[in-house]
């Protein structure tokens, strides 16, 4: 996996929310992997939504602590919601009939050249233009091994390409 992955707010929130230990572990493992390999991407919209959701879920936690958790994702150079993102989001909304907020997420992923959008909010496996939607809870963290064996070396029946060889008779 070498293409960038766009991370939606629900992945960040699950990684910090202790209510579902299984999802927390999967989300945290994905985020760790993306940090280690420099493949994580996000948007200012996602960072804002993550912070607001964490404030609502963790009312007793100091806001400064919650902000530090999401502020780290500024290192991924999040895609701002600018005029180009808005125009592309409108195209996505019309073409794929997505909600406005999901269209903004897809547009930000497309702008950053992401091959995969990690989210639980859209249909797993859906292809939206150049972006494939995958759930971090169903997508394996590693690439699957091939399910077939390479054919043994068989001599070709065709003449090799290139200039013919000179033979001793010529």
Q: What form results from the Cα inertia axes?
A: elongated
Structural class: alpha/beta
Main beta sheet, described? 5 strands, mixed
Low-confidence stretches: 144-148
Please tally the β strands and state the result. 5
User: Kindly state the mean pLDDT as a whole number?
Assistant: 90
User: What's the architecture, going by CATH?
Assistant: 3-Layer(aba) Sandwich
Distance between the termini: 53 Å
Gyration radius from CA atoms, angstroms: 23 Å
CATH superfamily: 5'-nuclease
Structure description:
It is elongated, with a radius of gyration of 23 Å. The chain has six helices and five strands, in the order E-H-H-E-H-H-H-H-E-E-E. By secondary structure, it is α/β, with parallel strands linked by helices. The chain starts with a strand and ends in a 36-residue tail after the last strand. The chain has a single domain (about 5-135), classed as 3-Layer(aba) Sandwich (Rossmann fold), CATH 3.40.50.1010. The protein has a five-stranded mixed beta sheet. The chain has helices at about 10-15, 20-35, 45-55, 65-70, 85-95, 100-110, and strands at about 5, 40, 115-120, 125-130, 130-135. Helix 1 packs across helix 2, helix 1 (about 10-15) packs parallel to helix 3 and helix 5 (about 85-95) packs across helix 6. The model is unreliable at about 145-150 (pLDDT under 50). Strand 4 and strand 5 (about 130-135) form a beta hairpin.
Highlighted features:
single chain; 170 residues; alpha/beta; Rossmann fold; five-stranded mixed β-sheet; 6 helices; 5 strands
Architecture blueprint of SSEs:
Elements (H helix, E strand, L loop, with lengths): L4 E3 L1 H8 L4 H17 L2 E2 L2 H14 L5 H9 L11 H14 L3 H12 L4 E3 L8 E2 L2 E4 L36
Parallel strand pairs: 1-2, 1-3, 3-5
Antiparallel strand pairs: 4-5
Helix pairs in contact: 1-2, 1-3, 3-4, 5-6
């Amino acid at each position: 996996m070498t293409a960038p992955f766009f991370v939606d707010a629900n992945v960040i929130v699950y990684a910090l929310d202790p209510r579902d230990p299984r999802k927390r572990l999967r989300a945290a493992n994905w985020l760790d992997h993306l940090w280690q390999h420099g493949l994580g991407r996000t948007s200012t919209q996602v960072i804002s939504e993550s912070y607001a959701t964490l404030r609502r879920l963790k009312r007793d936690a100091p806001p400064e602590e919650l902000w530090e958790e999401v502020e780290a994702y500024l290192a991924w150079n999040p895609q701002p919601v600018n005029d180009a993102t808005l125009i592309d989001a409108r195209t996505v909304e019309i073409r794929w009939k997505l909600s406005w907020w999901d269209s903004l997420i897809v547009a930000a992923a497309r702008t950053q050249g992401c091959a995969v959008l990690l989210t639980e909010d859209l249909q797993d496996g859906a292809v939206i233009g150049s972006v494939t939607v995958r759930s971090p809870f169903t997508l394996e963290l590693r690439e699957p091994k091939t399910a077939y064996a390479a054919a043994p070396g068989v001599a070709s029946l065709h003449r090799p390409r290139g200039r013919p060889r000179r033979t001793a008779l010529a």
